[in-house]
């Protein structure tokens, strides 16, 4: 079994090597729901910041459509699917950052289940920006256009049975009963995971799923 530390080392070393000219790097860390993208992104950023390479993590989840919009579109039950995000808004943000502009990035507040606009300021001079999310290397309209902007792409590969267990555990940790947790995972999360896997665009690096050290 691979370790989280090993995966962090691999990604951090690649970023250091690719930044030999000192230019800004846009890094995408992708994978299915429950794959461990957020943990990897945060640990890579912590390592790079300790190594005097200022790094900022931006979760794609800030582009969740508001619940009122999802209700109007009859998509509430599918929250987390590709069409429940503002993909065009994310593309505009990444385009502006790649063009050397300062941007303000939204943040998703899980406790309140809302996206907060302008919550994260990102300078064009920021040395490393890591964006993590399910659909950053996803072969579908609008989403696939993002691939041109990444300087490094990293996919976290987790077998579907392991993903299923993790996704059920997410709902259990929110105090749902086992039947409800299983139903929530199988009704939405697992189909989203299957879609991410089936429509994946090849990444620069594929990392096996990692155990916590």
Write the SSE topology.
Layout: E1 2-3, H1 4-18, E2 25-30, H2 37-50, E3 55-59, H3 67-72, H4 87-98, E4 103-109, E5 114-122, E6 128-133, E7 152-157, H5 160-172, H6 178-198, E8 205-208, E9 210-211
Parallel strand pairs: 1-9, 2-6, 2-7, 3-6, 7-8
Antiparallel strand pairs: 4-5
Helix pairs in contact: 1-2, 5-6
Helical proportion, percent range: 25-40%
Percent of residues in β-strands: 15-25%
Please name the CATH architecture. Answer: 3-Layer(aba) Sandwich
Question: What's the CATH H-level homologous superfamily?
Answer: P-loop containing nucleotide triphosphate hydrolases
Encode the helix/strand succession as letters.
EHEHEHHEEEEHHEE
Could you explain how this protein is built, in words?
By secondary structure, the chain is α/β, with parallel strands linked by helices. The chain has one domain (2-211): Rossmann fold (3-Layer(aba) Sandwich), CATH 3.40.50. The chain is 38% helix and 22% strand. It has six helices and nine strands, in the order βαβαβααββββααββ. The protein has a five-stranded parallel sheet, covered by helices on one side. Strands 1-9 form a two-stranded parallel ribbon. Strands 4-5 form a two-stranded antiparallel sheet. Strand 4 and strand 5 (114-122) form a beta hairpin. Helix 5 (160-172) packs across helix 6. It is globular and about 50 Å long. The mean pLDDT is 92.
């Amino acid at each position: 079994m691979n370790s989280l530390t090993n995966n962090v080392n691999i990604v951090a070393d690649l970023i250091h090597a690719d930044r030999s000219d000192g230019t800004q790097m846009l890094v995408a860390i992708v994978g299915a729901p429950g794959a461990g993208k957020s943990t990897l992104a945060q640990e890579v950023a912590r390592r790079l910041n300790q190594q005097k390479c200022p790094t900022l993590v931006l979760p794609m989840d800030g582009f969740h459509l508001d619940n009122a919009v999802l209700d109007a579109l009859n998509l509430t039950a599918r929250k987390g699917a590709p069409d429940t995000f503002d993909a065009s808004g994310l593309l505009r943000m990444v385009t502006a950052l790649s063009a050397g502009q300062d941007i303000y990035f939204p943040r998703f507040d899980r406790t309140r289940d809302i996206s907060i606009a302008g919550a994260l300021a990102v300078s064009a001079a920021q040395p490393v920006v890591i964006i993590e999310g399910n659909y950053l290397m996803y072969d579908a309209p609008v989403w696939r256009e993002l691939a041109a902007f990444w300087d490094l792409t990293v996919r976290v590969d987790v077998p579907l049975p392991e993903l299923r267990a993790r996704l059920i555990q997410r709902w259990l940790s929110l105090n749902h009963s086992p039947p409800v947790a299983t139903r929530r995972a199988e009704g939405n999360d697992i189909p989203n995971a299957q879609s991410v896997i089936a429509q994946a665009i090849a990444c620069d690096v594929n990392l096996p799923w990692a155990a916590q050290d």
